[in-house]
Amino acid sequence: MWAARADVPHEIWRALMRQANETIEILVYSGGFLVESLGFVDIVTEKARAGAQIRVLLGDPDSEAVRERGHAEGLPTLPQRCKSTAEYLADCLKLPEVSLRIHDTPLYTSIYRFDDNMLVNTHVYGAYAARAPVQHLQRIPGGRLFTLYADSFEQVWATGRPVV
């Protein structure tokens, strides 16, 4: 566990992304750091071409939920950051293994799944997501925590609207 997302070493993020062979799932509002600092677009392209299924949920930049979160965190540019991340990922959508949806849910936790590993970034009112804690979860037989967050992702995915 890390006290803040900004404390998770880039090497951890990259290692988890690179080791994923089947599934990458991301639930965020903007996730700008992924595309700006971690080479996420290249990894998505590489993994999709190798057959991994990639699903990304970004915040709807026109939604009240995103505007409210931006206000609460002192990030009035959050809607623009959501749009920017979608623009970075646009070329990846040509690959059939990549799906992008936008959502307008109140986001309590950002979820970053890489096969049977997951980084869970809980949100704290008034703090940027980068300043909030992150847990590293692994799927284990009989474990419930990984499944709890995976199910949460599925619920938001079901309400998301496809970006094409």
Q: Label the CATH architecture.
A: 2-Layer Sandwich
Our count of domains comes out at 1
Percent in helix: 25-40%
How many whole angstroms does the radius of gyration measure?
A: 15 Å
Question: How would you write the strand order of the largest sheet?
Answer: 6-5-4-1-2-3-7
Individual helix count: 6
* Beta-strand residue fraction: 15-25%
Describe the structure.
The chain is an alpha/beta fold and 164 residues long. It has a single domain (5-163), classed as 2-Layer Sandwich (Endonuclease, Chain A). Helix content is 38%, strand content 23%. It contains 6 helices and 7 strands. It has a 7-stranded mixed beta sheet, with helices on both faces. Strand 4 and strand 5 form a beta hairpin. The model has no long low-confidence stretch (mean pLDDT 96).
